[in-house]
Every structure is written in structure tokens, then in C-alpha cells.
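Researcher: For the record, we're logging two predictions in this thread. I'll number them. Prediction 1 follows.
Model: Prediction 1, sequence and structure:
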Amino acid sequence: MKSDSAGNCSDVSVEELRELYKLYPDLEKVLGNPDAIEQAQLDSLRTSKDSWQKLALKAVSVCWKAKGGYFFHEPVDPQKFSIPDYF
């Protein structure tokens, strides 16, 4: 699912998904097979000096600044997008 700057939603095409995976190959690995994440990677997050909140804020910051990051510039409106169980 994608949204334009006016908030109109539409499905992501196969070609758009391929382009996303070209830009972010690690994303394809995780989304394609989430079970492939190594336990060591998960453990390193738990023992990191940063709390999970700091790590989450870093992730949101990267998304905010990325091309197409306007998705993250406004909170999701569950009524507007007809997704009452979003939260």
C-alpha cells in the first residue's frame, strides 16, 4: 500500500516493489523471509547501549528523510483510511 501527498492510497505494483528492493536490498531479505533474521542480530539489539526507543527513533528518522518519506510526516488517520483496527 502506498499513499500520495494528498493521502490517496493505492496498491504498490510489482515493478514498484522491485524498484524498492533495488534501492534497499536488505529490506527484500527481511520482507521476503523474516525467519532468516539471525538470532545474533536480535540479541545485539537487546544488548545495545541504545534502548529500543532510541533505535525506533533512529529508524523513523531515516524513514522521515528518505525519498518518499512524506508517508511518515503525518499521523495515520484510521477513519480517513477506513482502518479502524490500525492501532
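Researcher: Logged. Prediction 2.
Model: Prediction 2, sequence and structure:
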Amino acid sequence: MMTKTLKTQFLDPTVIQNLRKGAILGLTTLACMITNHNSETFSDIIKQVFNAVLLCFRDSDPKIVYSAESSMYDLMRYIPQQFILKYFTDIFEGLLIVRRLPFND
């Protein structure tokens, strides 16, 4: 429920930059703080968080993209590897998209 609220109300490109950055950090913190890695809820939350962060890789604002990269690093650092491997292809493709953005030149 919380992840859906954060995604729908704060990750919309029409919302101001600081609120969007806060939403990305909030989603990441939420995912990293869950300790019961065996629950179905954890798997659902991780899926939603990864999708939201990957969506932010396509943002036109470089600060949002940087926050998404930082959040992805934190997710990969604190989430067990078996969950990370499910999204490895998506993460790799997202990082390729970030590299191709015009403000990276």
C-alpha cells in the first residue's frame, strides 16, 4: 500500500524534484528495512520498488536519475542476492539507458 502511494503521488514527472527524490529514497529505505525476506509480501514490495527505481532511470532530470542510481546501489547492497538476480537483466538495461542519456556526455 505504501509503495503504491509513493509511486502514484510522488514519482509523477509533474511533481517537484525534491518530492520525487524523497519518494525514491523512501521506497529504497522501505525495501532495505524489511527483515523477513521469506515472505510473499517482501517479494511483492521488492518488485514494486525495483520497477519504480528503473522507471526513474528514464527521467529527463539528471538529479532524479542520480538519485535512482544511488537507490539502485543501496538496493543491490542490502537486498539478498536471490532477489537481485531476478531483476539483473532489467537493472543492466536500465543502466544502459542511463549511460545513453544526453546529460552523461
